[in-house]
Amino acid sequence: ASSDNTIVILDSGDVNAGVVSTFIPINLLTGLSVGQSSIIPSAFFTADFFSRDFDIHYAQGKLNVLPAGLKVKANDTSKVYGGPDPSLSYTVSGLGYLDDSTVVSGVVLTTDTGRNATAGQHAIVPSGGTAPNYTLVYLNGILTVKKAPLTVKVNDTTRVYGDPNPAFRFT
């Protein structure tokens, strides 16, 4: 393979210990990215590198490369109610060839934030991304909001025996 997406394919079943055997096709693909590319047939070699029994003609074929599925999973995270919202992130799986996660761009992660992030679980929803040669499949994550600690203390007070209870105050 080369950096210009050109590849030469030699069928290993037609090669015997490095010796070219009868009718070994060598084909050229004009691209490996999603879309349609040409398959350009090249020489068919015989043991003596030519054949007197055939008038060989070549016709191009087409290779249709379809996008592969690529999973974009929002990572689970947590926070305490009233605390700062966590940073949201995602993980990519299913990459092919030498691709890495930098081929994915534009992913937006949304969830309930601030006061709307009440105690419990909330979906983290990925959307909007693109990646050449892939169809993105989005998987939600979970934001778990834990209850915030709250301590209520009744203020000390006094009363005289037999009198009604005073109003109780708390902090």
Describe this protein's structure:
The protein has 171 residues and is an all-beta fold. 0% of the residues lie in helices and 40% in strands. It contains no helices and 13 strands. It has a four-stranded antiparallel sheet with strand order 1-4-5-6, with no helix packed on it. The N and C termini lie far apart (72 Å).
Task: Note the overall shape.
Answer: rod-shaped
Q: Quick one: how many beta strands?
A: 13
Largest sheet: 4 strands, antiparallel
Distance N to C terminus: 72 Å
Work out the helicity level.
Answer: under 10%
Radius of gyration: 34 Å
What is the topological layout?
Layout: E1 7-10, E2 15-16, E3 19-20, E4 24-29, E5 35-45, E6 61-65, E7 68-74, E8 77-80, E9 90-93, E10 108-110, E11 120-127, E12 134-139, E13 141-146
Parallel strand pairs: 7-12, 8-13
Antiparallel strand pairs: 1-4, 2-3, 4-5, 5-6, 7-9, 10-11, 11-13
Give the key terms.
single chain; 171 residues; mainly beta; four-stranded antiparallel sheet; 0% helix; 40% strand
Summarize the structure.
This protein is an all-beta fold. Helices cover 0% and strands 40% of the residues.
